[in-house]
Amino acid sequence: MDALTLIRETFAPLPGRRLIDIGCGPGALAGALAGEGARVTGIDPNPAAITQAAGAVPGAGFAVASGAHLPFAEAAFDGAVFLNTLHHMPEAGAALREAVRVVAPGARIVVVEPLAEGSFFTALRPVEDETAVRRAAQATLDALVAAGELACERDVTFARSETFAGLDPFLARVLATDPARAGAIAERRAAIEAAFLAAASRDDQGRFVLVQPLRACILTGRFA
Prior knowledge:
Elements: H1 3-11, E1 18-22, H2 28-34, E2 39-44, H3 47-56, E3 61-64, E4 77-83, H4 92-102, E5 103-114, H5 119-124, H6 131-146, E6 150-164, H7 167-177, H8 182-187, H9 189-199, E7 201-202, E8 208-221
């Protein structure tokens, strides 16, 4: 199980499918889905990320916007995806409601979120401790399901394993997700290296292995 396979299976067949990638970053997911024929629109509050995504995926549409305020009409899409992004949104509940609003009635919303556990999470903590925001995102999601505002069709946890030749490739990966982490990395490099070495296991080729548990939920909305 991996996130991209889950997303593909959820929205198959992809050709012509209108999908919104909420928190698209530089466009990696949008590119993968557009490459298989989906009509993808990506939104992100970071203008630099949107510029990069538009250059990388010319066949998709992109806009600078927050998840809590989507500049689209009701039922404009056939599905929505939050891939490792909900915990970055201060108004996670509003973002989920907006996703429901802009997808067709009964259309699926896929939320994939990293949990506050695992060796990747442990190595990341000296750079940025996401314990509170990750747990808050899970709590918001669970509360909306418990209240009947979202229906959960599938709830699965799986692990993403990544290998790194050393600390620098790990830091490059961390910076690619959020360039604003550069200052923390410069200030705390020694502590980050210690955490990385303590958290990582080694494979038979001597590479460092970090594992991140992810929770994926396939949802439909029940908002009025």
